[in-house]
Specification:
The protein has a domain at about 1-50 and about 195-335: T-fold, CATH 3.10.520.10. The protein starts with a strand and ends with a strand. The protein contains eight helices and 21 strands. The chain is globular. About 45% of the residues are buried. It has a nine-stranded mixed beta sheet with strand order 3-4-8-9-12-17-18-19-21, with helices on one face. Strands 2-10-11-20 form a four-stranded antiparallel beta sheet, with no helix packed on it. It is α+β, with helices and mostly antiparallel strands. The structure holds adenosine monophosphate and magnesium ion (MG). Adenosine monophosphate binds next to helix 7.
């Protein structure tokens, strides 16, 4: 028997709620990009009508991006590209930006995160109930997953392999989070957050001047917390083996693939969380670090100073990057922090 299980929230959002009189936070949620998008805005100095208008605009921004990059939306640029033999001319800024950013991430991570895995993710079909491919099927799909067959320039997205398919699952929500914050900082809303699946965007400055506190889900128990991040504004993205998976013949297969094997990554990590000031990058890197495993991930951090911070969760043990060692992360439950 196979079961597909979906985690709706990878992150616990810890913010003060309630109090007397008017709730200090405006909250709203909608479904998009295969997940729940949650908005929480400070009401300070902003009218209810303006808060509502901002939430409506956020919904429109996400719908616009999903319409451009989704693999399933009928007329998306991604669908058009995947059906083409050599690529497409496109004037869609979101599509071109997501493709460029994911190619940069693929290059930087030596393909640990890659937009070219469409054939592989389609074959395993984790979101549709799951399928365990044969070696021959795996080899055939993997033969069409090389990101180096992709390029983008002057409004043309090209591929040299007609059978290659794009999948922006590892980066699209982070890109959307970044575009939402770009808009929200122009609205007069003092501070707040947006959450899309495993991505949280934190903007503005809280009135008490304190850091945002984000609880990370315990991969071994989705109702529990493995630890707490304390970070300034920016983006937190989490990739975990507990988010989407199916089971077949007693084996669990999750949704993050190691491009080197074509199989669910088995790096020893159960989750990787990344904080960065760049939302698109945070999403791309959480997937890449999960695939790399702790040692490669820490070496990657050393080679990219100032770009991000990360929390790497393995069985019972958590490692964090140097920027989080001084109060940036606090382990919880049965987890200990490895220095
Ligand atoms: P995330 O939750 O951000 O780690 O993204 C996982 C999603 O990205 C999966 O559901 C797939 O659609 C896709 N994906 C899986 N493995 C990779 C990978 N190594 N690189 C890029 N995309 C991937
Ligand atoms: Mg990701």
């Amino acid at each position: 028997m196979r079961r597909a299980l979906f985690g709706l929230l990878a992150l616990f959002l810890l913010l003060p709620l309630g109090g007397c009189g008017r709730d200090p936070l405006y909250e709203s949620a909608f479904l998009a990009m295969d997940t729940v998008v949650q908005l929480r805005f400070s009401r300070e100095g902003v009218s209810d009508a303006d808060l509502k208008a901002a939430a409506a605009e956020c919904e429109a921004i996400v719908a616009r991006i999903e319409g451009a990059i989704s693999r399933t939306a009928a007329s998306s640029e991604t669908v058009r590209f995947n059906a083409s033999a050599g690529g497409i001319a496109s004037s869609d800024e979101d599509f071109l930006a997501v493709l460029s950013a994911s190619l940069r991430a693929a290059e930087e991570t030596e393909g640990a995160v890659s937009p070219a895995l469409g054939r592989l993710t389609e074959l395993w079909n984790v979101s549709g109930g799951g399928y365990v491919p044969t070696e021959a099927e795996l080899a055939e799909a993997r033969a069409h997953c090389d990101w180096r067959a992709l390029s983008v320039a002057d409004g043309f997205a090209a591929k040299t392999d007609a059978a290659l398919c794009l999948d922006f699952g590892a980066i699209g929500k982070g890109y959307a989070a970044a575009r939402l914050i770009e808009y929200l900082v122009t609205t007069g809303i003092r501070w707040g957050l947006v959450s899309l699946g495993g991505n949280v965007a934190l903007f503005g400055e809280k009135p008490d001047g304190r850091a945002f506190r984000v609880g990370l889900t315990d991969p071994a128990d989705k109702a529990a917390v493995a630890g707490y991040l304390s970070v300034p504004d920016g983006f937190v993205s989490v990739s975990g083996d507990y988010e989407r998976y199916f089971e077949a013949d007693g084996v669990r297969y999750h949704h993050i693939f190691d491009p080197a094997t074509g199989r669910p990554a088995a790096s020893g990590l159960h989750a990787a969380a990344v904080w960065s000031r760049d939302g698109t990058l945070a999403d791309a890197l959480s997937t890449a670090l999960f695939v790399m495993g702790a040692e490669r991930a820490l070496a990657f951090y050393d080679a990219h100073p100032g770009l991000f911070e990360a929390v790497l969760i393995a069985d019972g043990a958590i490692r964090v990057t140097p920027g989080l060692t001084e109060g940036g992360f606090e382990a919880a439950g049965a987890y200990s922090l490895i220095p």
